[in-house]
């Protein structure tokens, strides 16, 4: 027995002494969960899966041939792994095409900036847009500007994204990208530029979706060093900064995307379903390794470990590789096309959905488990902590209110969510960039993710826990 495994065993024993005795069937479930955990730590199929996905298909922009080919491969992979009821579920999609994009300073010192068009944004006129830039240090400063104050100008927001383990810095700045172009247009702007929503200082820009529809304008993200350069130029003297924007972005309205679905049927309660997964599409700049090739690989690898057990779990566990998570759609839908399709097509089945969660925050280690408020201090929570604490996963007392972006439409229909929270301290260094490639993934960290997912899913599927709040609670 290795020192690492011996330490885990001692820790598990100590936790057991603290938590007190458990029922025989719970003890058996915990032993199986520990076996799943330890098998994953010794090496899972997660890294080989994400390696094959990113190598074979590269970037998988929603609705493209690459995304569709990856979905067909995903279904074939699910069947090869032994999953039940494998399906590719197709839905219509307006496909966004990036085209050619550029942002340049034309005065007072002419120079190019490293930039990308925001996903879903519109094209410029054929000869581009050239106008004076109005620089805002914060998004709130833009919102404070009166209507008409930006008429004929280009709005530029330079607010930085704060690094945080749980990604809350990105949560705070994401409206700058999603809503900023519309707010700038409301004040008369003819173009929009923002500092990329990233936590690094490298010279590449971050893609990402913005709102689609009337009242939007051509919108771009520039790299953090270019944002700093623009700030310095603007501060030099009283000469206004002039920018030139160019984009040939467009939508193809008659496209399609798809979700890939597979499951392990429950041996006793097959109609009670736990849903896990990630999104198969990616932005077109890198190869979508951390966003979200890692997530689809982690969840499939966890389910494969459970499929290899001598018997199925009591409840059904379903894995979904959602399509079209990234790119916005024309109103009223906006984003999450695959997640909306999954929920809408199963509206009558939602009462039988036990819980939902996804892996969509890169490939770094999981550090905490969050459960619905109804599961606090439950036998499920105590059992989970016996198994997860030895691999560095703590219990987060803050109730889980969502399980990730693609779980949102299902959670909105009343399905409880849980979260296995990953360390996202450096996630936004590469998120939505050319640097989102396989080399950014640590295989051992992926295996720790698989260990946490597989062991917790087994405990949840073996339990009778009801995660929905009871009336009056």
UniProtKB/TrEMBL annotation:
GO terms for cellular component: extracellular region; lysosome. Keywords: Carboxypeptidase, Endoplasmic reticulum, Glycoprotein, Golgi apparatus, Hydrolase, Lysosome, Metal-binding, Metalloprotease, Protease, Secreted, Signal, Zinc, Zymogen. The keyword Endoplasmic reticulum applies. Residues 1-24 form the signal peptide. One of its GO terms (biological process) is proteolysis. It comes from the Bacteria. One of its GO terms (molecular function) is carboxypeptidase activity. InterPro entries: CPQ, Peptidase_M28. Residues 259-456 form the Peptidase M28 domain. Its main location: endoplasmic reticulum. It is found in: Endoplasmic reticulum; Golgi apparatus; Lysosome; Secreted. Homodimer. The monomeric form is inactive while the homodimer is active. PANTHER family: CARBOXYPEPTIDASE Q, PROTEASE FAMILY M28 PLASMA GLUTAMATE CARBOXYPEPTIDASE-RELATED. This is Carboxypeptidase Q. It comes from Brevundimonas variabilis.
